[in-house]
Structure formats: C-alpha cells, structure tokens
Specification:
Helix content is 34%, strand content 19%. It is elongated, with a radius of gyration of 22 Å. Helix 7 links the parallel strand 4 and strand 5. The strands form 2 sheets. It has a 7-stranded mixed β-sheet, with helices on both faces. The chain is of the alpha/beta class and 293 residues long. The protein has 10 helices and 9 strands. 39% of the residues are buried.
Amino acid sequence: MQQNSGGRPPGPRSVLLAEVAQATQRLADAGVPSPRFDAEELAAHIHGCKRGELHNVKDTDFDARYWEAIARREAREPLQHITGRAFFRYLELQVGPGVFVPRPETESVVGWAIDAVRAMDVVEPLIVDLCTGSGAIALAMAQEVPRSRVHAVELSEDALEWTRKNVEGSRVVLHQGDALTALPELDGQVDLVISNPPYIPLTEWEYVAPEARDHDPELALFSGEDGLDTIRGIERTAHRLLRPGGLVVIEHADTQGGQVPWIFNEEAGWADAADHPDLNNRPRFATARKATP
C-alpha cells in the first residue's frame, strides 16, 4: 500500500472533496479566474456549510445539485448569481440578475472615503452614494461611520428590487432617480459624494469578462465612447451637492488613471484632485475637494 511521508496509509477521501477536485478542473478549463475557490464556495452553498467544513460532509449527503451549480458557473454565470449573495467589507448582500455585483476593488475606494469622513470635524456627516446598485457602498458607509446620514440614488427599477432588500432595516435613505439630477433638496449641504459609476468605453465591449458583459446590467457598465460620460455628469452633480470643502470620491477603470482628475479641475471649482491606487497598485479612483469661494 502506498504510504504518505508520515509512514501512515492515506485516509479515504470524501466523495464531496473528490467532486470538488473534478469541478475545479472543469472551471479552470472554462477560463473561470478562481476555479478552486468557486468550486469550494458552490459546494459549501449547496451543502449548507462553510468552505472549511466540506470534509465533514458525509458521502451519503452528497447533493447532485452541485453539478447543476458547477455547470452554471462553467457557462460563466457569476458565482454570486448562483449563491444569491455577495460579500463586501463587513456586509453580506443579496444580488442577482438586474443588479451590478460589487467587486473587491471597490472596497479600497470605500475605505478611503470612510477614513476621510472620520477625519472631518462633523458630528453627523451627510453622505450621498450615486449609482448605488446593490447598496454596497451606502451600507458600508452607514455601518462604519455610525452617526452618518446616508442617501443612496439608483435609476434602474431592476436594480432597486435588490437594493430595497439590502437597505431594509438600515439607516440608508434610498431614492430612485438619475444621478445627474438627483437630490436638489440637498444642494450645498453634503460632506461627501461617492460613486462607482459605469465607466467602460462602448468600444471595449468585446474585452469585458463574460460574467460582467453577459450578466451585469449594461446601464452599470458602459458610458459613452471613452467611458467617461457619466463621470462628467457626476462631476456637476457632486459640485452642486457638496458644501465648500466637501469631498467627492469616484471609482474608474485602471486605464483611466490621470484622465478623471482632469475632469475635477480648478476651472470647474475643484481643488486637490488626485488619483489613488487599488491593492494591486493600479489607479482605481479619483478624489477632489470642492473649492472654498
């Protein structure tokens, strides 16, 4: 009998772990970026346990629906659509068709914003999240800046079905509306405007990952020939909403580093416009301060 390095015969491998190994290979062959993680996450979802507990699932409890889930992921349906949930900072959100799935890179954008608001000498900071989608940004700001007043704006009725579920019971005030004309009643009062808007150029449609291109709503992805149309509009909205000295934080594509700060220029009434890197040291978001008259 073959023995391991410890001199003991290897223990029997569970059915589920063997299936996870096969599923990992299938997902890898399909081009899924994180095949092992996704195979384990789907196994945990189907079997009602955590990823670290898969080895405890009895062979007799193996659920063949696992392979239905793997087939969906193999076809590049987003993992979060299959499980119905997405994790963002300290939140677990409900997501599915019709709403943009929050990405890990946005967490660093929100982290910067939270630190900036905490540094303000404001007792109850007023925050606006434009193009809120699932509500991830707004909910994170409300959770991690406990005395903040957070308003979230979303245009799409399909997305709002998910947003309403996520913000229920929270302090976030949700508004259906266009980010370019939203919340005139708050003009000149807001401490921070934050947004993860659509920013992919229409010309890059074919290069977008299938999970986003085929499943995220187009309204949340594409914005004109250069991808900056919505950001240009949000620049005007942010300037209208912010008090003097208030901050805007806006996510953009890593290929747009340097372009977005130019939109928030001195002639338009801004100061201290700058780009910031994500965890991979790629330009990911821009910030600016509304100039004081």
